[in-house]
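Final report, section 2: Outcomes. Of the targets proposed, Transposase (ISH51) is the one most frequently requested by collaborating groups, and we therefore present its record in full.
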Amino acid sequence: MDVAVDFHETPYYGTAIDRAHPQYVKTKEERGTHRAYRYVTLDIVTHGFRLTVALRYLDHRGRLRAALRDVLEDARKAGVRIGRLYLDREFYTYEVLNWLRHEGLTVIVPLRLGSSQRKRWEHGQKSYVSEHLLKDSKGRGAPLPLRIHVVVRYQMGERFGKHGCQYLIYAVLGGLSLDARH
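The predicted structure is given below as tokens.
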């Protein structure tokens, strides 16, 4: 079954009910506050329909892998057999992807790109597949081989009045065939 794991930050405007254990995290200021609820959800994805199966609250930054492990475990306990796993770009880290590789899951995640990295992938007018080695920023693990799928769409002013190529860049880990259309 295809499942999607989403990262959420919902702005919080109140004060802590329990100051020793605040229920929000500090974030970059957005919409008039620098506090937010942060959580991860796991949804079953079918044709035009999503069903939330698991939710985990994040009490501070850096617990993404643990939260991901917990929602996957909750889904399995609920009887969900995971086929493909679609992740938000916040999960594009060496630690998370290396752990998922050892779990044997097929994972699709958008790349987190800066402007210089974007120039590397954004070229041409046709979609293509390439290889990439994701390195551990801490230098402890071996490079992780990923397939990069660059999907090129041409915008004809339909959204936001923009014209030209739009590049959707995804990392794929695991056994996804190159001609998969889903």
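Residues 85 and 107 are 5 Å apart (CA to CA).
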